[in-house]
């Protein structure tokens, strides 16, 4: 049990370090998309830029808006980060007890709680912009969780198991992206909506909401929200790699595939304009819901 605890601590620490370099990768890719250099001054090729940013954020003074609800305002960034960290416990180490039987259910349970932190952030700030941003997040996340769960359910009919480890065992011969390419595309878009990433970043639409739900946060509060968001991006890449791209057959290949999906999410931010909000909701309820239900019926019919 103690070994499990130590392994989990190592995993969480290194996932946070991974977030640091993911932010550097994002700034580099966005730089080259916009025909300019990314961070390249701090350390070799800007390698230590994330650490200098962290020092800057954590040493800044932490302001509280006068009309904010003090305790919810203070604790909501910690809630956002904690949920993003806890969901990593489903990562299936081959030798750990934590790769338990109901890991997919645990993942669903934790991911469905992610909206609460953002909702409290927006409400506790007592700012019009942040309340609008948090309302958008709630509607968006609740909508896309429905299609997200149904699409994962399609894949569970292939494995007939709610253990994440089984996906690796079932993709030895052929990856699920070949068998279920429409489900992959829809799940990828659902993850973009779930993570509030471009083109679905309505919660922090700079053009109309300044910075959305986190407009009143600076210093360590902003850093926690930022870490939570980027941990979720890494986790989404892990889940997509696990479900569709063969899982962990070889560790190095697994991280290579994970890096490609994370890079695609970043490139999407650099290339696509923001979607319209009513179209986002129509896409979910009128297209994805019906399509995912049809896919479930199709895959069940294949099974029998």
Automatic annotation (TrEMBL):
GO molecular function, one term: NADH dehydrogenase activity
PROSITE patterns reported in the protein's UniProt record: COMPLEX1_ND1_1 (PS00667), COMPLEX1_ND1_2 (PS00668)
Alphabetic keyword roster: Membrane, Mitochondrion, Mitochondrion inner membrane, NAD, Oxidoreductase, Transmembrane, Transmembrane helix, Transport, Ubiquinone
Gene Ontology biological-process annotations: aerobic respiration
Transmembrane segments: 5-25, 71-91, 103-126, 146-167, 174-193, 222-245, 252-273, 285-303
Domain of life of the organism encoding this protein: Eukaryota
EC nos: 7.1.1.2
Keyword Oxidoreductase: yes
Main location: mitochondrion
One GO cellular component term: mitochondrial inner membrane
Catalyzed reactions: a ubiquinone + NADH + 5 H(+)(in) = a ubiquinol + NAD(+) + 4 H(+)(out)
Record has Plastid as a keyword: no
Family listed: Belongs to the complex I subunit 1 family.
Function: Core subunit of the mitochondrial membrane respiratory chain NADH dehydrogenase (Complex I) that is believed to belong to the minimal assembly required for catalysis. Complex I functions in the transfer of electrons from NADH to the respiratory chain. The immediate electron acceptor for the enzyme is believed to be ubiquinone.
Protein name: NADH-ubiquinone oxidoreductase chain 1
């Amino acid at each position: 049990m103690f070994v499990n605890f130590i392994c989990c601590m190592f995993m969480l620490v290194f996932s946070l370090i991974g977030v640091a370099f993911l932010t550097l990768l994002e700034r580099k890719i966005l730089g080259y998309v916009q025909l300019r250099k990314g961070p390249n001054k701090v350390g070799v090729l800007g390698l230590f830029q994330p650490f200098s940013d962290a020092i800057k954020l954590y040493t800044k003074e932490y302001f509280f808006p006068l009309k904010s609800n003090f305790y919810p305002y203070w604790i909501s960034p910690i809630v956002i980060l904690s949920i993003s960290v806890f969901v990593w416990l489903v990562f299936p180490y081959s030798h750990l007890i934590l790769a338990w039987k109901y890991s997919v259910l645990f993942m669903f349970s934790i991911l469905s709680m992610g909206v609460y932190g953002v909702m409290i952030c927006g409400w506790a700030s007592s700012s019009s912009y942040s309340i609008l941003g948090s309302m958008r997040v709630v509607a968006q996340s609740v909508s896309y969780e429905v299609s997200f769960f149904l699409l994962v359910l399609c894949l569970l009919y292939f494995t007939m198991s709610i253990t994440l480890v089984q996906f690796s065992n079932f993709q030895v011969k052929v990856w699920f992206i070949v068998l279920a390419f429409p489900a992959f595309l829809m799940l990828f878009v659902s993850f973009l909506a779930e993570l509030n990433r471009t083109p679905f970043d309505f919660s922090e639409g700079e053009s109309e909401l300044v910075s959305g739900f986190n407009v009143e946060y600076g210093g360590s509060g902003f850093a926690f929200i930022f870490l939570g968001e980027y941990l979720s991006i890494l986790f989404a890449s892990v889940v997509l790699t696990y479900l569709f791209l063969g899982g962990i057959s070889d560790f190095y290949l697994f991280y290579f595939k994970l890096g490609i999906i994370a890079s695609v999410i970043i490139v999407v931010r650099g290339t696509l304009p923001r979607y319209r909000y009513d179209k986002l909701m129509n896409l979910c309820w009128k297209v994805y819901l019906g399509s995912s239900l049809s896919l479930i019926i199709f895959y069940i019919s294949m099974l029998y």
